[in-house]
Amino acid sequence: MIVRERSKDFVMIEQHHHASISGMLFTYLIEDFVPDLKWKDDIAFAIFQHDCGWVPFDKAPFWDDKGNAPYSFTSFPKEPKTVLYEIGINTVEKQSLYAALLCSKHYSSFLKRDSTPLAINFIENEKNRQERLKKNIIGFSENQFNIHYELLKFFDDLSLYICLNEPGVQKDSEHPFFKSGISLPQYFGDGILHLNWISHNKLELETKLFQLDLPVQLEQKVISKEDILKDGLQKTYRSTQIEKVPFKIV
């Protein structure tokens, strides 16, 4: 779950919806940046589905009693988080070995600096999976794969920027993850993507990445803190309607 806190409520965005935005943005890349056609569908599937393991967890969000807020993807405990990572990769592998390999590397990167036995075990299991997948993917190229992995990382970050910031946010109030911009893939010429909300319904990118101005629709639930106190988080979340927030990327 992606969570933004306001004075009287929490804005909550399900991880799989964030991933859907990532995938949609990938499909509108300008032709110069479109990767090898052989792997394009697998890359798209990985980007669209990279957070599918979160789906059942996000339908019934948990309360973080220490943080006094709903658990977000950053605060969610590692024990269940590694379970949902594995569920997601397994689900993707049923449809595409190449996409599963991309997702496996993506999730392993989140835990590579973690020295706990849980993280070490997860990374070791995924390393074994990755070796198995590479042997079974016809025409696999490590150099190509690394380029494609950068695309997954980039579109994950771009969608996270959209979801973690309030539309129209001032530059000095942006989420700290992205105050310096977003690293562009080397495949795009390297460097940093600088982006800026120029209004509540328009996000400007300083680098031209897409074929046209893109309409995007963000789906979120705005959960009242008062209702959480009265009815609890899960009941309040279930009974709150999805709010659709349209804007354009220019």
Chart the SSEs and their pairings.
Blueprint: E1 2-5, E2 9-13, H1 15-27, H2 37-49, H3 55-58, E3 63-64, E4 69-70, H4 78-93, H5 97-111, H6 117-136, H7 142-164, E5 182-183, E6 192-193, E7 195-199, E8 202-205, E9 214-224, H8 225-231, H9 233-239, E10 243-249
Parallel strand pairs: 8-10
Antiparallel strand pairs: 1-2, 2-9, 3-4, 5-6, 7-8, 9-10
Describe the structure.
- The chain is α+β, with helices and mostly antiparallel strands.
- The chain contains 9 helices and 10 strands.
- A 6-stranded mixed β-sheet has the order 1-2-9-10-8-7, sandwiched between helices. A two-stranded antiparallel sheet has the order 3-4. Strands 5-6 form a two-stranded antiparallel ribbon.
- A hairpin with a 3-residue loop joins strand 1 (2-5) and strand 2.
- Helix 1 (15-27) runs antiparallel to helix 2, helix 1 (15-27) packs across helix 7 and helix 5 (97-111) packs across helix 7 (142-164).
- The chain is globular, with a radius of gyration of 18 Å.
- The chain starts with a strand and ends with a strand.
Task: Provide a quick synopsis of the model.
The chain is of the alpha+beta class and 250 residues long. The protein is 47% helix and 18% strand.
Summary tags:
250 residues; alpha+beta; 6-stranded mixed sheet; two-stranded antiparallel ribbon; 9 helices; globular
Q: Which stretches are poorly predicted, pLDDT < 50 over at least 5 residues?
A: none
Count of β-strands:
10
Q: What's the arrangement of strands in the largest beta sheet?
A: 1-2-9-10-8-7
Computed structural class: alpha+beta
Major sheet: 6 strands, mixed
Kindly, what is the distance between the CA atoms of the first and last residues, rounded to a whole number of angstroms? 27 Å
Radius of gyration: 18 Å
Helical stretch count? 9
Provide the β-strand percentage band. 15-25%
Shape: globular
